[in-house]
Amino acid sequence: MKKLYRNMRIFTPVDGGKPLAGAEQAKISEIKKGAMLVADGLIEKIGAEEEVTKGLDRSQLCFEKDFGGACVIPGFVDPHTHLCFAKRREDEFGMRLAGLPYLEILKRGGGILSSVNAVKGATEEQLFETTKKLALSALAKGTTTIEIKSGYGLSLDLELKMLEVIRRVSFETPLDVVPTFMGAHAVPQEWKNEADRFVDEILIGDMLPKIKAQGIAEFCDVFCEEGVFSVNQSRRLLKAAKAMGFDTKIHADEVHDLGGAGLAAELATRSAEHLLAASEDNLRAMGKAGSIAVLLPATAYSLKKPYAQGRQMIDWGVPVAMATDCNPGSCFCESVPFIFGLGVMNMDLTVEEALTATTLNAAYAINRAKKLGSLEAGKQADFVVLDGETPTTLAYHAGSTSVEEVYKLGEKVA
Fold first, then answer.
1. Does residue 412 contact residue 406 with C-beta atoms inside 8 Å?
2. 325 is in an annotated binding site
3. Binding of Zn(2+): at which residues (predicted)?
4. Could you tell me which residues come within 8 angstroms of residue 18 by beta carbon, excluding any fewer than 6 positions away?
5. Beta strand 61-74 with 320-322: parallel, antiparallel or unpaired?
6. pLDDT for 68-122, tens place per residue?
7. 274 a known binding residue?
8. Is the pTM of this model over 0.70?
9. Domains of the chain: residue spans and CATH
10. Is there a binding annotation on residue 256?
């Protein structure tokens, strides 16, 4: 049986088989009185209502809904989160407000290492409940697909514990969840003077093959930054991960221009994330290599840092996506509508570019564009109903959410 959703004002990017870059990122299809015919969770037909319903045998329908001309967009895709954690770090937020740099907090045993200790002390069930609660909050704000990283374990047992929780979230919520192994989120205290050995013996020699054997993570990510992992260490890890069959991502040039964006281009990683300090040359190289720039404006907001050069990246031909970076330290935010507004207001993206950045390009950043990220025949019926006339409301209605309803595989889930 099929479902008919009609009388919708549909806005969606159009998938041409690759991430949208340059002027293409601003191209959005608008169907003023549109309809979707959905079968088994997939869009069978979409377009003008008169075309979708032409010759339709309504006896084949199990459900029909008139949306009264409401604005409909694809479900948001959040391609960069650290949603799996055991304890918030509100105290460190206060330290940063008082002027203490993040890397100094990290040196004092705070930051990521504080979250590692919290994960170590939590049961798997406690960790799951915390993660599930945040995932459902993201869903209510329009996110229908989400990437979640490990990285607060830094040992094989704890990383597997986190990845098992992430897998459970994918089974026990309506969300599509993409799992990323990030054992290279920080150098553990016991290895702080032997980072090379930690990379070669622990990450490459032990963790990667065992996690691959479990089939519990799709991506491998690394924090390439001063005081964390160098470009050479990151290169060794990502090349080894690729050789084992992982797809790859990289936290690049968040605080210093270490050359992480250049490494992303060199290795053609699926994406590079943060990029606040990345150079123009390396960003242009990413564009040529097809690596997606995943920008995290709420992190810049929370850290009181200059925003990434989103406007320039698009002008330079780099495909841009945006994500929440939801984590317990530098950015406690699971709201893509907030990210959308920051992208428009503080990074000078147009509304159309921001829509692509939070849907189709975000889907490409986690290798899901073949089945979601835009509203097109053959893709999942993942969509969001807004309370405004156009997606502009996501930036216009500040300090709130314009999301009224959320549908996953054609079912209302929030």
1. yes
2. yes
3. 80, 82, 251, 325
4. 290, 364
5. unpaired
6. 999 999 999 999 999 999 999 998 888 888 888 877 887 777 787 789 999 999 9
7. no
8. yes
9. 2-75+372-412 (2.30.40.10), 76-365 (3.20.20.140)
10. no
